[in-house]
Automatic annotation (TrEMBL):
InterPro entries: Aa-tRNA-synt_II, aa-tRNA-synth_II, aa-tRNA-synth_II/BPL/LPL, Lys-tRNA-ligase_II, Lys-tRNA-ligase_II_N, Lys-tRNA-synth_II_C, NA-bd_OB-fold, NA-bd_OB_tRNA. Pfam families: tRNA-synt_2, tRNA_anti-codon. Residues 190-497 form the Aminoacyl-transfer RNA synthetases class-II family profile domain. Its EC number is 6.1.1.6. Mg(2+) 2 binds at E421. PROSITE patterns: AA_TRNA_LIGASE_II. It is found in: Cytoplasm. The keyword Chaperone does not apply. The keyword Magnesium applies. This is Lysine--tRNA ligase. One of its GO terms (molecular function) is lysine-tRNA ligase activity. Homodimer.
């Protein structure tokens, strides 16, 4: 049995301990004690006390009386003394000391009878340091704040990944890395918003329930509205609504949102995920690439904790997100790595032959799909450093403007970090006539069986016909950004990921 497995108690062990704890709960109620009070007289936090007294000399009294609350992570009872390590929500610990002289015989006896590992308790008393120099609260009273009916996992071994994901609350209680991820994610979101504010962007919100799914090539989740008696879709992207905002005159907009795609789940994909999208009037795919690099690099500074663009992954690896990121051509890099010259004019038969030779399978192959799959086969895995892959095939990019100087490609980039796609950016297609033709072609692909093809959105086309300014747009998965900043898989970066 592995250490991770040993950390988790058997169902029988949990059942036995739960029964004992239920009996303690009932006994407390019989005695008039409250196992789940509505409030306790907390005066400060464990974190604040520890921050105030970082280097208290051994066997010292401060004269400060506090009321604190925390979870019991270690407990030791002796004859006239009881000790407990109380942990705050951030993982900071302080020792609670209960002595017969300070709390009295009855309170000490009740502590020994009723308090278990995992319980949340309140203690009030003077802040001191023990003879061993351990910062402590010498309690004059204590109360149960929440009786834990289930035992904590064994604290000296790690939880299995399955348990960490399914019972994240246990992960947060027992593992510093889980708590740190929450803080890193919050710091990252704050950094993104601050960078957008510096550039004059407005944060907006768009519908999560949509009558048509669009803005990306993906399979949607569908649902039914009883009020409207109509089928609705959970959004796969906010793009088409954010572009409506640009038509309305909001020239710089962004949204941090939840998207849903009814597709596979693996180390880089989740059916529900957090997405950042931004659109800047009078920008293009070059200026939006500059902005994206700034957003990620500022997030790295926030995540590193020291203002550096060098982040430390969970395995200790240092990863440098600084400097100017290279920009490479999709077609040129594919030609170089495959040893075959591939251009927008390369025939479908030639691409299909190369794919067959390399064992690359493509459902409903088109020129663009084959080029992108072959590029992933030959090039993607070698891109460790952040890299913008520029200039994509036309038929796979229905919302993107044609390249202004290179025939047969569109002004689109994908940003790859550590070999996975982190973000994508466009010079947006603003010609409503061309956009309608692209949607019609997508409808043909849907008729051929492509369940990721976009639908023709008449309301969006109507908005475009009122005039949308030249625009640069980008989208970035926030869960994947956290992957780049921490080196973890997507299920570790999401606080409560969807699991079967």
């Amino acid at each position: 049995m592995s250490d991770a497995q040993q950390a988790e108690l058997t169902a029988e062990e949990v059942s036995e301990q739960k029964q004992v704890r239920l009996e303690k709960r009932d006994r407390m109620i019989e005695l008039g004690l409250v196992p789940y009070p509505l409030s306790v007289p907390v005066t400060t936090s464990i974190d604040a006390v520890v921050a105030k007294y970082p280097d208290l000399e051994p066997d010292t009294k401060t004269g400060q009386t506090v009321g604190i609350s925390g979870r019991v992570m270690h407990i030791r009872n002796t004859g006239k003394l009881a000790f407990a390590a109380l942990q705050s929500g951030t993982g900071v610990k302080i020792q609670a000391m209960l002595s017969l002289a300070e709390v009295g015989e009855e309170a000490l006896a009740q502590w020994k009878e009723f308090v278990d590992l995992g319980d949340q308790v309140f203690v009030a008393g003077e802040v001191i340091s023990s003879r061993r120099g351990e910062l402590s609260v010498m309690a004059t009273e204590w109360r149960m704040t929440s009786k834990s009916l289930r035992p904590l996992p064994t604290l000296h071994t790690e939880l299995s990944e399955e348990t960490r994901v399914r019972q994240r609350y246990l992960d947060l209680i027992t593992r510093e890395g889980a708590r740190q991820m929450v803080q890193t994610r919050a710091a990252t979101n704050a950094s993104l918003r601050a960078t957008f504010a510096e550039h004059g962007f407005t944060e907006v919100e768009t519908p999560m329930l949509q009558t048509l799914h669009g803005g990306a090539a993906a399979r949607p989740f569908s649902t039914h509205s009883n009020a409207f008696d109509t089928e609705l879709f959970l959004r796969i992207a906010p793009e088409l609504y954010l572009k409506r905002a640009l038509v309305g005159g909001l020239e710089r907009v962004f949204e941090i949102n939840r998207n849903f795609r009814n597709e596979g789940a693996d180390s880089t994909h989740s059916p529900e995920f957090a997405m950042l999208e931004a659109y800047q009037a009078h920008g293009d795919y070059n200026s939006i690439a500059d902005l994206t690099q700034e957003l990620v690099q500022n997030a790295a500074k926030a995540a590193s904790g020291d203002g550096s663009m060098v982040v430390t992954w969970a395995d200790g690896t240092k990863f440098d997100l600084g400097g100017e990121w290279p920009r490479i051509s999709m077609y040129e890099s594919l030609s170089e790595k495959s040893g075959v010259t591939i251009t927008p004019e390369t025939s479908l038969d030639e691409l299909a032959a190369l794919a067959a030779r390399e064992g690359v399978e493509v459902k409903l192959p088109t020129h663009g799909k084959l080029v992108e799959e072959l590029w992933e086969h030959f090039v993607k895995g070698e891109l460790e450093r952040p890299t913008f892959v520029m200039d994509f095939p036309v038929d796979t990019s229905p919302l993107t403007a044609m390249h202004r100087s290179k025939p047969g490609v569109v002004e689109k980039w994908d940003l790859y970090v550590r070999g996975f796609e982190l973000a994508t950016g466009y010079s947006e297609l603003i010609d409503p006539v061309d956009q309608r033709a692209r949607f019609v072609e997508q409808a043909r692909e849907a008729a051929r069986g492509d369940d990721e093809a976009m639908q023709l959105d008449e309301e969006f086309l109507t908005a475009m016909e009122f005039g949308m300014p030249p625009t640069g747009g980008m989208g970035m998965g926030l869960d994947r950004l956290l992957m780049a900043l921490t080196g973890l898989g997507i299920r570790e970066t999401v606080l409560f990921p969807l699991v079967k």
